[in-house]
């Protein structure tokens, strides 16, 4: 009976202060949606980084003497580097490409995307190089051991490029979380205002209930329930918005990148894990805010 009374009073309250209720629902929906989106982008960034780390190579470029005169890596200087790399347990594979092979690979990669650059690059512009794949891409000890060798001209680590790409996604995630924090603060203030206004408009009803013996919990519970119901609607709308945005906008737009493994797919499983947790947190924060507001500002 008591729970039924509390629920009925809460639902009536939502209609009495409709504009404030709508504002709170919208703010909660945006805040929840942004938090869930930030979590999904975080997981997407991690998965994308794993994809690229599986393919990442370290290119050890050799000096002009080897590039110009050693097409088979038979000179002592070249063979010594190759032996050291192959003997290291942290190295998965070592491939030697002479100058001609490096140029052919260069043409293969860029002849369609930048034919002008290919045309302007001479065959002797690229050095011979070792293409090294590491067992653990973040363990570059094998490369560090030969980095200062006189035959090594330069070391190009693709892992840094992966970090740069991941940092761009991290920036999107950080911006999303910052906006989520701003909207969450706005939602908390809306909860406080909503509860105060609702309690003010029903002061007489509350006083009568207290006079006939109703407990403080009984008189305050409908206001807390009212805020929680509004927050719950916002959580559901925020979740629906994220689901529709993912399925109807994000996934179709990025499908080509998913298929070519240039970007890890945004997983629906992340949504179904994050949304209940974030939604539950939103409801708890709403209930606590409403309770503290009533204790602080409502004296009757």
Quick tags:
alpha+beta; 4 strands; 11 helices; elongated; 300 residues; four-stranded antiparallel beta sheet; single chain; 8% strand
How would a crystallographer describe the biggest sheet?
4 strands, antiparallel
Overall pLDDT score: 81
Strands of the largest sheet, in order across it? 2-3-1-4
What is the chains' assembly state?
single chain
The computed structural class is: alpha+beta
Q: How many beta-strand elements?
A: 4
Q: Taking Cα atoms only, what radius of gyration do you get, to the nearest Å?
A: 31 Å
What is the count of DSSP helices, taking H or I runs of 4+ residues? 11
Percentage of β-strand residues = 5-15%
Any chance you could write out the topology, listing elements then pairs?
Blueprint: H1 2-16, H2 18-55, E1 58-62, H3 64-69, H4 76-87, E2 91-97, H5 99-110, H6 115-120, E3 129-134, H7 141-146, E4 152-157, H8 158-201, H9 203-211, H10 216-259, H11 268-297
Antiparallel strand pairs: 1-3, 1-4, 2-3
Helix pairs in contact: 1-10, 2-8, 2-10, 2-11, 8-10, 8-11, 10-11
């Amino acid at each position: 009976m008591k729970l039924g009374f509390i629920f009925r009073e809460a639902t009536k309250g939502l209609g009495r202060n409709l504009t404030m209720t709508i504002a709170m629902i919208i703010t909660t929906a945006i805040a929840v949606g942004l938090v869930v989106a930030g979590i999904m982008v975080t997981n997407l960034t991690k998965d994308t980084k794993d994809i690229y780390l599986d393919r990442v190579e370290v290119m050890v470029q050799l000096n002009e003497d080897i590039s110009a005169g050693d097409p088979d890596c038979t000179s002592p200087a070249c063979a010594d580097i190759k032996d050291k790399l192959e003997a290291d347990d942290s190295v998965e594979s070592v491939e030697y490409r002479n100058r001609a092979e490096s140029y052919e690979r260069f043409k293969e990669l860029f002849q369609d995307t930048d034919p002008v650059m290919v045309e302007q690059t001479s065959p002797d512009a690229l050095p011979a190089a070792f293409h090294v794949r590491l067992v653990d891409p973040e363990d570059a000890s094998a490369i560090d051991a030969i980095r200062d060798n006189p035959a090594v001209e330069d070391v190009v680590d693709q892992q840094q490029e992966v970090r740069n790409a991941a940092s761009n996604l991290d920036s999107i995630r950080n911006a999303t979380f910052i906006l989520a924090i701003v909207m969450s603060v706005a939602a908390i203030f809306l909860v406080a205002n909503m509860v105060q206004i609702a309690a003010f408009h029903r002061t007489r009803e509350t006083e009568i209930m207290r006079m006939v013996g109703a407990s403080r919990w009984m008189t305050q519970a409908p206001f807390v329930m009212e805020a929680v119901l509004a927050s719950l609607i916002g959580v559901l709308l925020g979740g629906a918005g994220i689901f529709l945005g993912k399925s109807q906008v994000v996934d179709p737009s990025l499908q080509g990148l998913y298929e070519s493994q240039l970007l890890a797919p945004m997983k629906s499983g992340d949504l179904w894990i994050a949304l209940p947790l974030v939604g539950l947190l939103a409801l708890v924060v709403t209930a606590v805010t409403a309770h503290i507001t009533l204790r602080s500002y409502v004296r009757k």
